From TrEMBL:
<dbReference type="InterPro" id="IPR049470">
    <property type="entry name" value="TRM61_C"/>
</dbReference>
<feature type="binding site">
    <location>
        <position position="131"/>
    </location>
    <ligand>
        <name>S-adenosyl-L-methionine</name>
    </ligand>
</feature>
<keyword id="KW-0489">Methyltransferase</keyword>
<dbReference type="GO" id="GO:0031515">
    <property type="term" value="C:tRNA (m1A) methyltransferase complex"/>
</dbReference>
<protein>
    <recommendedName>
        <fullName>tRNA (adenine(58)-N(1))-methyltransferase TrmI</fullName>
        <ecNumber>2.1.1.220</ecNumber>
    </recommendedName>
</protein>
<feature type="binding site">
    <location>
        <position position="180"/>
    </location>
    <ligand>
        <name>S-adenosyl-L-methionine</name>
    </ligand>
</feature>
<comment type="function">
    <text>Catalyzes the S-adenosyl-L-methionine-dependent formation of N(1)-methyladenine at position 58 (m1A58) in tRNA.</text>
</comment>
<dbReference type="Pfam" id="PF14801">
    <property type="entry name" value="TrmI-like_N"/>
</dbReference>
<comment type="similarity">
    <text>Belongs to the class I-like SAM-binding methyltransferase superfamily. TRM61 family.</text>
</comment>
<feature type="binding site">
    <location>
        <begin position="110"/>
        <end position="113"/>
    </location>
    <ligand>
        <name>S-adenosyl-L-methionine</name>
    </ligand>
</feature>
<feature type="domain" description="tRNA (adenine(58)-N(1))-methyltransferase catalytic subunit TRM61 C-terminal">
    <location>
        <begin position="75"/>
        <end position="240"/>
    </location>
</feature>
<comment type="subunit">
    <text>Homotetramer composed of a dimer of dimers.</text>
</comment>
<keyword id="KW-0808">Transferase</keyword>
<dbReference type="Pfam" id="PF08704">
    <property type="entry name" value="GCD14"/>
</dbReference>
<keyword id="KW-0949">S-adenosyl-L-methionine</keyword>
<dbReference type="GO" id="GO:0030488">
    <property type="term" value="P:tRNA methylation"/>
</dbReference>
<feature type="binding site">
    <location>
        <position position="136"/>
    </location>
    <ligand>
        <name>S-adenosyl-L-methionine</name>
    </ligand>
</feature>
Length: 278
């Protein structure tokens, strides 16, 4: 699939009707898509610019855009819950996922975060994604391959338990580690052993007990900076004249993000001095 320019065969295209309903098709020369308002000929879309309107044989209008990654992530089949775009955006920036980075991820789940990481590290980077469940790994591979129209060369999806992974398995230290799993505190020794000094570690947990356990676990290793924890809340707004106001509904909670950096070996970081509470 191309990412920009006029539509080409192989592009995944989202058609939107007058009622803002979406239909997704993959363009092929001579192909047809049948709606309840007649057929749409793919050839009428191929060669047009994105944002064009095509008509079905019964005269209904459909707006055409390529599927964005966010559309793919929210509509693709899932084995496990995906990291939502608002949170993967935080991971990319706060996790400092740079072009050329070597990133270790677990679990691969449905492959949603893998896609964002793969795009961010670029062709000179590498993403190694461990997944303990064969069925989930199959979902991740299918979803990633479908989005990139093939297996990306910079991706190494692996079936296995992260708890057993060593630096040797990874061909040396990694620059970043991102965990999205039920019990990340069980993998903290692995993270410490494989992450390069200065490397960023982020993990994503849904509940307060998990948050407490992983924060305490990070402190106990004495190998990381004081961890930070936060959540991101995104509230959409309706903007229509005097009816301008926040939307009534929002995804109020997805998960907490936790962030820390690997210290150099043998270092005791300066800790803030807290006055004893009376
Ligand atoms: C919530 S899902 C990850 C979703 C993924 N981040 C995404 O965006 O699609 C958590 C996954 O972690 C996997 N998992 C749990 N413990 C693991 C371990 N020790 N090693 C590797 N994978 C593990 C689970 O099987 C599950 O598929």
């Amino acid at each position: 699939m191309a990412y920009s320019g006029p539509f080409q065969p192989g592009d995944r295209v989202q058609l939107t009707d007058a009622k803002r309903r979406h239909f997704t098709i993959i363009l092929e020369a001579g192909g047809q898509y049948f709606t309840h308002k007649g057929a749409i000929n793919h050839d009428e879309i191929i060669g047009k610019d994105e944002g064009s309107v095509v008509q079905s044989t019964h005269g209904a209008d459909y707006l055409c855009f390529r599927h964005l990654m966010v559309d793919h992530v929210l509509s693709m089949p899932r084995g496990a819950a995906v990291i939502y775009p608002k949170d993967s955006a935080q991971i990319l920036v706060e996790g400092d996922i740079f072009p050329g980075a070597k990133v270790l991820e677990a679990g691969a789940g449905s492959g949603a975060l893998s896609m964002s990481l793969l795009r961010a590290v670029g062709e000179h980077g590498q993403v190694i994604s461990y997944e303990i469940r064969e069925d989930h790994l199959a979902f991740a591979k299918d979803n990633v391959e479908e989005y990139f129209s093939g297996m990306p060369k910079n991706w190494s999806p692996r079936l296995g338990d992260l708890k057993k992974v060593t630096q040797e398995d990874l061909g040396g230290p990694v620059d970043r580690v991102i965990l999205d799993m039920l019990e990340p505190w069980e993998c903290l020794n692995v993270v410490r052993d494989v992450l390069i000094p200065g490397g960023v570690f982020m993990t994503y947990v849904a509940t307060v007990p998990q948050l407490m356990k992983v924060m305490e676990g990070i402190r106990e290793t004495q190998s990381f900076t004081e961890p930070r924890a936060w959540e991101s809340l995104v509230r959409e707004w309706k903007v229509e004249g005097l009816a301008t106001r926040p939307e009534h509904r929002m995804n109020a909670h997805t998960a907490f993000l936790i962030w820390a950096r690997r210290l150099a070996d043998g270092v005791t970081p300066p800790r803030p001095q807290r006055r004893a509470r009376r």
